[in-house]
Amino acid sequence: MDEPILCAHCGEAFPVSQCTDVDGQALCPHCLEETSVLCQACGTRLLREDAWEAEGDLYCFSCYEENFLHCERCGQIIPRGEACYFPGNEEPYCDDCYDRIRQRKVIANYYYKPIPFFFGKGERFFGVELEVDEGGESDENAKEILAQANPLGREHAYAKHDGSLDEGFEIVTHPMTLAYHCQEMPWQEVLDTAVALGYRSHQADTCGLHVHVNRTAFGPREADQDPVIARILYFVEKHWDELLKFSRRTPRQLERWATRYGYREQPQDILEHAKKGYCGGRYTCVNLRNRSTIEFRMFRGTLKYNTLIATLQLVNRICDLALNLSDREIQALSWTTFATACREPELIRYLKERRLYVNDPILSEEEL
User: Fold this and answer.
1) What are phi and psi of 223, to 5 degrees?
2) 178 near 163, Cβ under 8 Å?
3) DSSP symbol at 287
4) Does the structure show a pLDDT above 80 at 364?
5) How far is C-alpha 102 from the geometric centre of its chain's CA atoms?
């Protein structure tokens, strides 16, 4: 007789013959498909939560350990047969890191992505990608700029190749709290050095300033994060004209590099449209393609300290509103109410410069 047994996942009763044992847990056919996978190498069935991912496939731990290594420098997963080694050194490296160390390159490959270091105390972190151009894709210049960014051995930032630039590169920071960006990260020295070496950002027309925010700042789970992200998208769409002025971009530049999703009455509707991927892939005003962050891509590059800090403060304010206001409250929020509530000196100054503040405008310094 086929005795019934309770599925360890859903708790429903099924005949024993219909259930499959996975790591000591009896699973019904539906839960088996939902919660377990087959190891790509040996075919062993295991719980999805216990699987190890490499190059898009899932493995049991034994097969993962047998077939893959981690680059000693950047942490990237690499097949054992593709690992690079230096003479007398048993530590494995990926191709990019091996070449970078061997050639002593300062400007890394575009796909270089090291394990992030987090600077500052808090739950919300900002990663900056600042493109600079017209000064040459020069390792020596990048080394000078990074020497300012990384004092006392702290790796605040690194440099990457960017194919959209003519004669420059991208300065990328590790995640930092807003307070750390403002008080500890030596941005003024970095920007001054870049200008002295002949680089431009705003004036180059090719450069962007992108700001990443960690998704966990909006909640521990996707279900918690999505309503907040939906309100962020709503704010951007509702106040598009003001943010266009803030960004210093032209409408055509935004269409190419940071297209909008399109206004809808409900925040959730904009998010659902964005998730369907109908608009520009990662070249959207708020890129949602990254697993760990959302990326604000609207802003034109700058080598002016006040503008850079004001941009981070604006993104922080938008995140605050999306976290603390309801859908109805953010729908009712006007730009004037938003602007007059700003308290950060750099942000207020920049809003006045761009004539986005209620008070009289002030003269602005030249953007670089």
Assistant:
1) -65, -30
2) no
3) E
4) no
5) 29
Is-contact 52 59, C-beta < 8 A?
yes
Q: Can you read off the two tokens belonging to residue 266?
A: 């409900």
Q: How far apart are CA 151 and CA 153, in angstroms?
A: 5
Asked if pLDDT for residue 1 goes beyond 70, the answer is no
| Number of CB atoms found within 10 A of residue 97's CB | 22
The answer to whether 297 and 286 are in contact (CB under 8 A) is yes
Beta partners for residue 123, in sequence order: none
Q: What is the pLDDT of residue 127?
A: 98
DSSP 8-class letter at 72: T
CB atoms within 10 A of CB 129: 19
Rounded-to-integer distance, Cα 88 and Cα 90, Å: 7
- pLDDT in the model for residue 282: 79
Q: Which residue has the tokens 């925010």?
A: 213
Give kind and range of the element (H or E) at residue 286: strand 286-287
**How many whole angstroms separate alpha carbon 307 and alpha carbon 204?**
16
Instruction: Say if pTM beats, i.e. exceeds, 0.85.
Output: no
Compute the radius of gyration of the chain from its Cα atoms: 24
Can you tell me the mean pLDDT for 219-243?
97
The per-type count for the chain, helices as H runs and strands as E runs, is 14, 17
CA dist 260 and 241 (Å) reads 11
The b-or-e profile of 252-278 (16+ CB within 10 A means b, else e) is ebbeebbebbeebeebebbbeebeeee
* pLDDT tens sequence across 344-354: 999 999 999 99
CB of 112 closer than 8 Å to CB of 96: yes
pLDDT higher than threshold 70 for residue 139:
yes
Q: Residue 133: helix, strand or coil by DSSP? A: strand
